[in-house]
């Protein structure tokens, strides 16, 4: 059977590759300490679960959920955003419910790109950003994220010949996997760049709350309050520990929201309305658990980074996200995939290889802070033994 050419770039994926390595380690008798996925181990808030549970007995929630039925959620999201970032939002035209923010970032290129158009993506970057462009038959120009530039792209380094054929740029700060943070000043420069070159500015924003600075990260719409070129994607997975419920949303330029809605109308209906009611409860209810979640990840960050430092592997403490981005020690710096496969096979500790996020991720590994401090300490002890044994 001959499959479409667009499937060829999708044959490998960092999470699928590590899943196979973890399965092999389990088969050999290892107990896995999984730090390779950013799937929170923390519980969803009780008032959110109560809203979902109450919906089960309401037969109105048992049918298809079309766009008009999502108005209460869109109103709640618009109010939440305006209160948080100070930018007015029209719930009718500038908000769209999504089955997770990843669905939105993967589908938007279908609405923006013609075959052969360029999308400007960061390297390293989140794998689904690349996949969405491939599925839309677009071309990718990667903008390197380097430590010496604080893992921010050099926008002026994009060649004019690429810009002439480019239609969109995808950014995501706080950044996965590098944990980098972008200031409002950076967003103002990025908006001006996209306005100048007629680019759609896509901001994938799942970690906006997960900062250790005492305040949320800047929104791109604060730099583009008229929403001239920008669309921002939000997730309920990180702040509200609702990853398994698959719910997110987009806020931004009305034309882009309408186009993404048209793509969705040909692909899916929305999720179960009970889940949507749970998301409404999360956004409109008490925010105490968001603060608790951030405090938990900050404590874990400190434990993990300090434990690595004690074994002679210094790693900067990130200001945001639920990850650490660690430069590999010699002699492993040239092959992060080999390091991660050998590590999980020998110790059961699973990290994500930086190469899986792009060629400029090579030499790094990402660790997700999704285990208790005691388990993180145990993971570092196993890593120390692995390094002492020369990777055997």
Give a topology summary.
Layout: H1 14-27, E1 33-34, H2 46-55, H3 71-85, E2 95-98, H4 101-112, E3 118-123, H5 127-135, E4 139-144, H6 160-163, E5 166-171, H7 184-197, E6 200-204, H8 220-223, E7 230-235, E8 248-252, H9 254-265, H10 273-284, H11 288-310, E9 323-327, H12 336-347, E10 349-350, E11 352-353, E12 364-368, H13 373-388
TL;DR of this structure?
This protein is of the alpha/beta class.
Describe it:
With 392 residues, the protein is of the alpha/beta class. The protein is built from 13 helices and 12 strands. It folds into 2 domains: 5-43 and 288-388, Aspartate Aminotransferase, domain 1, CATH 3.90.1150; 62-284, Aspartate Aminotransferase, domain 2 (3-Layer(aba) Sandwich), CATH 3.40.640.10. The protein is 40% helix and 14% strand. The longest helix is centred in the last third of the chain and has 23 residues, at 288-310.
Structural class: alpha/beta
User: Count of helices?
Assistant: 13
CATH architecture type of the largest domain: 3-Layer(aba) Sandwich
Structural domain count: 2
- Strand content bin: 5-15%
Largest sheet: 7 strands, mixed
* Rg of Cα set: 21 Å
Alpha carbon gap, first and last residue = 41 Å
* CATH class descriptor of the largest domain: Alpha Beta
Q: Output the CATH topology of the largest domain.
A: Aspartate Aminotransferase, domain 2
Approximately how much helix is present in the residues? 40-55%
Give the topology string: H per helix, E per strand: HEHHEHEHEHEHEHEEHHHEHEEEH
């Amino acid at each position: 059977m001959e499959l479409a050419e667009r499937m060829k770039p999708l044959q490998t994926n960092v999470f699928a590759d590590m899943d196979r390595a973890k399965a092999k380690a389990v088969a050999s008798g290892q107990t896995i300490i999984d730090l390779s996925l950013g799937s929170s181990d923390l519980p969803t808030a009780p008032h959110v679960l109560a809203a979902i549970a109450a919906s089960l007995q309401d037969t109105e929630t048992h049918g298809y959920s079309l766009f008009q039925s999502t108005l209460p959620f869109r109103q709640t999201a618009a109010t939440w955003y305006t209160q948080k970032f100070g930018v007015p939002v029209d719930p009718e035209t500038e908000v769209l419910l999504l089955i997770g923010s990843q669905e939105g970032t993967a589908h938007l290129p279908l609405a923006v790109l013609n075959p052969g158009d360029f999308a400007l993506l960061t390297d390293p970057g989140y794998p689904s950003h690349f996949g969405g462009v491939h599925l839309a038959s677009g071309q990718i120009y990667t903008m390197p994220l380097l430590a010496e530039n604080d893992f921010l792209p050099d926008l002026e380094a994009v060649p004019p010949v690429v810009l002439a054929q480019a239609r969109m740029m995808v950014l995501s700060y706080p950044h996965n996997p590098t944990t980098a943070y972008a200031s409002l000043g950076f967003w103002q420069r990025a908006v001006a760049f996209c306005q100048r070159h007629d680019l759609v500015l896509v901001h994938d924003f799942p970690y906006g709350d997960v900062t250790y600075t005492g305040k949320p990260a800047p929104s791109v719409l604060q730099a583009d309050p008229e929403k001239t070129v920008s669309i921002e994607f939000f997730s309920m997975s990180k702040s509200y520990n609702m990853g398994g419920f698959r719910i997110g949303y987009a806020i931004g330029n009305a034309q882009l929201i309408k186009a993404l809605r048209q793509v969705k109308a040909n692909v899916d209906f929305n999720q179960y309305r009970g889940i949507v009611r749970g998301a409404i409860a999360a956004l409109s209810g008490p925010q105490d658990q968001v603060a608790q979640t951030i405090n938990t990840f900050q404590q874990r960050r400190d434990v993990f980074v300090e434990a690595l430092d004690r074994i002679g592997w210094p790693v900067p403490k990130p200001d945001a996200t639920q990850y650490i981005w660690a430069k590999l020690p010699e002699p492993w710096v040239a092959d992060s995939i080999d390091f991660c496969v050998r590590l999980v096979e020998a110790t059961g500790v699973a990290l994500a290889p930086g190469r899986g996020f792009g060629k400029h991720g090579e030499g790094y590994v990402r660790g997700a802070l999704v285990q208790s401090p005691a388990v993180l300490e145990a993971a570092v002890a196993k890593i120390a033994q692995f390094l002492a044994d020369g990777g055997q």
